[in-house]
Design brief:
29 strands, Glutaconate Coenzyme A-transferase, 7-stranded parallel beta sheet, about 525 residues, alpha/beta, homodimer
Chain lengths: ~525, ~525
């Protein structure tokens, strides 16, 4: 679409002013755009239309989609708590294809390689486009301009916000429930495909016109706890299996074995300790990647040594976080998703391991959320530039391969730390300008590489705090220059067409950057 | 207002077509009125307006009301989980009076004698009128036409519905939280004024423009569990004490000692057993009055004898229900309010003692609710007529003295039983026509009096089920005639003016009856 209208946003990025036929607002800066209007308002339901027995079960997904009135052009949502083991999203679009429905918008909370079959549905016209993260093959498909519509990537909080604000109207939500009752109450704590919690589907349950719960573990009412409330649910149906449990949660999560990554993890923990962020009653969040887990283990040891206890840690939970909870190193885990079996067990058994949702944790258009209360967060990035701007969705070759997850939302933390290798596959991670802007540099405080730590010059307080700590603090430009020398120069620029294939929303719904179509080589 | 427009509704009652300046819909029959339109849609908030620290605390209620923008004519809501020990509602209107605000609508989930001081606020013009149950002195005040506006009585489910549907727009909700954190998360499980749960305030938190949490037990974030979610809360403030704990929950709940009431309770339990309602996996709900408690005790014994286990029982919980749970006579208590200290303890400690809300249990404009799933409910009434229509709000003298509570919502049960004395203070309870219609006779299945049981002729199945049980089943007219002979005739008709002082809403928001002003004698 060479004739699409572009404008330069407050981050200096050229972004479209219209996406999939709807006007969008260019990014205006951090904490600048003020929403107007009211929350989305679903139609008022009536118990006249619900069975007195409370039994909303029907034969299968296809029948439920028909009962929900599926038709061309609708938006159908799924959640990703079953991660790369999910069977439900594929079953939904297979049923839609059988029903002959076309041009659906798929609105997953994230998509995974196990859903690569959606490419066929896009080619056959069942799916028009995807709004949601596209990890792996779907991202690549989008990168090469093969999707009819424009992809819209939102953070977890941004997705909740978009639904709440009415930017995205979900016609039919299909919610995989590892345990559910005939009324539609559901949770993820038990059953053959237990995934811990169902927070990513909260917005869908609250705001969709029609809500379908699919389970492989139907129990008598009441299904306790009701992480998804049956009072929002229209139909319940069963599948023999909703997922492959081995791909939903890991048996155990693994720490990194790479000496460089271990060094990065340890430096990150030392930074948190030496700056005094690690103190009684503090809080932190880290992911479930190898470096993040190693950071957590180093920090636990430092907390034990200093006799320091956290008030809360935020999951994605793993065996390491649950060990912290059980050892008394934290009062609470506030958890957005469980990454291993220990996480699921702990959430099931320990009332201080609390399930959260993008509403509680990340929604920027709420009366506050949890993210800014975090004393520090430890996150990843595919690229960081000399102004501390960061990218998490594309690689330097321009390929869209990752979703945003909670990453943008977490930047609200009091101290955002990116422990990253300075290069990957001999391509520098530190760059002059990120390929795709996902997080503004003013919100990113520290980059920790195997070559030293770079602290954002805006954070004079942190620069003072580490003085004398012995930590190898260096200007980001210096580390970058060293890496470029080692790798033989900066990464090559991606070879792109003009056409925008996806946009990146900021937490407030404005468009912070656009992803352009890759040339086929 | 002799010129107010009245119409005859489907129950044959003359009701106004306009209440407090708003058009209302006359009752159309059970499961007949279909809502149109969408749920109320509060303004979209933004984190720009919330402190990054998550600390929303301010000095006092007065400051919070000012910050919330209180002004003349607004609707201010409170909840009644602190029952007759509540200090918060009085403090709110004292502060409003000090601020010089006039003509507020007070929208409590229920009001109690401890709030009789509101009469002064009505006389001084601070409060224009009350929508919500008016137990005791406030009801009497309303009965004599001393309130400026018309009272609107709604069931617990009807109140949630009214807020959800936008019939009542809450400008400022003040939520008493026995334990709360600076972000506004709150629960009722612990603290000096623990009341168990906060479900009656759920709608207020979700839909009010501004939400204030008041606590006397402020703890560090996070307050777990967040029965009220801080993400809905604007301001948090403290009082030295939010209530008198001895009047919030009883130390222990008491069974009846009256031989007649015991006989009624035992017959009710025998009815539930002998009709086969009491069977493995069944469910029931009963209140916390003396007769209801005795019923529960008799039933427990019968369940033990027959080795029968319930799937769930619904609270208001008491020591007797918690004993059932702990003894394994039920899998779950699904609880709307805790009536004694044992109820609070059990809810705090036992994950199978589950807090519910009017949304889950009673909202008629949801995708179903819990009420119709109950195998039986045991409720009270002030009057029942020969067509099984029942009254719970006025006495035969026309005085408005009670709220509806969950009573109307519970009528959806598969078997509604009213165990009631056939007369009180030598005034018959069985009548030709109820003074105020609160529940249509077609939903009331059995009346159990000390003179025998009357089964609604519509329920031929129940009549068959008790045949041969030896239970003293009698036509309702026969019991009524016997009582009238004993009491010296039917109750005298109340001496009323034409003016409507209050209306009774049905669960769907239509007006089922009106209460008229009493003549001053």
């Amino acid at each position: 679409m060479p004739d699409e209208k572009l404008t330069r946003n407050a981050a200096g990025r050229m972004v479209p002013t219209e996406v999939n036929g709807k006007e969008v607002i260019p990014y205006k800066g951090v904490a600048t755009h003020r929403p107007t209007g009211v929350r989305a308002a679903p139609s008022v339901a009536t118990c006249i239309d619900s069975p007195d027995s409370g039994d909303k079960t029907g034969p299968d997904i296809k029948a439920a989609l028909k009962a929900a009135g599926i038709r061309d052009g609708m938006t159908v949502s799924t959640h990703h708590h079953l991660r790369n083991g999910d069977f439900v999203a594929n079953a939904v679009f297979a049923a839609a294809a059988e029903l002959g429905v076309k041009d659906l918008m798929w609105f997953p909370s994230a998509s995974f390689p196990c859903q690569a079959g959606m490419i066929e549905h896009m080619e056959n016209g069942v799916i028009h486009h995807i709004e949601g993260s596209m990890n792996g093959p779907l991202g690549e498909h989008c990168s090469y301009g093969k999707m009819k519509g424009v992809g819209v990537l939102r953070s977890h909080g941004g997705r909740y916000r978009a639904v709440q604000d009415g930017d995205v109207h979900i016609d039919i939500a299909v919610i995989a429930g590892p345990t559910a009752d005939p009324f539609g109450n559901a949770h993820g704590l038990t059953g053959p495909t237990a995934c811990g919690l169902l927070g990513f589907a909260l917005a869908d349950s609250q705001y969709a016109d029609k809500v379908i719960v699919v389970t492989d573990n139907l129990i008598d009412f009441p299904c306790i706890p009701w992480q998804i409330q049956g009072n929002y649910v229209d139909f319940v149906t069963t599948m023999e299996s909703i997922g492959d449990s081995s791909k939903i949660v890991s048996g155990t999560t693994q720490i990194t074995k790479s000496p460089d990554r271990l060094r990065i993890a340890e430096m990150t923990a030392r930074f948190v300790r030496d700056t005094g962020i690690m103190r009684d009653g503090f809080s932190f969040q880290c992911g479930a990647g190898g470096t993040a887990l190693s950071f957590a283990i180093f920090l636990m040891e430092m907390m034990r040594e200093a006799n320091v206890k956290a008030r809360f840690v935020r999951g994605g939970s793993t065996q390491y976080l649950t060990a912290m909870l059980e050892e008394g190193l934290t009062d609470y885990i506030l958890d957005g998703q469980t990454f291993d079996l220990e996480g699921v067990r702990s959430m099931r058994e320990n009332p201080n391991h609390v399930n959260t949702s993008p509403f509680t944790s990340y929604n920027y258009h709420g009366k506050g959320n949890f993210a800014p209360m975090l004393d520090c967060v430890v996150l990843g990035a595919t690229e960081v530039d000399v102004n501390f701007n960061a990218n998490v969705v594309t690689h330097s070759d321009g390929k869209l391969l990752h979703g945003i997850g909670g990453w943008q939302n977490c930047l609200a933390s009091k101290c955002t730390i990116l422990p990253i290798p300075s290069f990957r596959n001999r391509i520098p991670v530190l760059v002059d300008e990120v390929t795709t802007l996902c997080g503004p540099g003013e919100l990113i405080d520290v980059v920790v590489t195997e070559r030293g730590l770079a602290i954002n010059p805006r954070r004079e307080d942190l620069l003072s705090a580490v003085a004398g700590s012995g930590l190898p603090v260096r200007p980001i430009e210096e580390i970058k220059a060293e890496v470029e020398a080692f790798c033989g120069g900066p990464p090559a620029k991606p070879d792109c067409e003009d056409r925008v294939v996806a946009v990146i929303e900021w937490v407030d719904g404005t468009v912070i950057d656009a992803v352009r179509q890759l040339k086929v080589k």
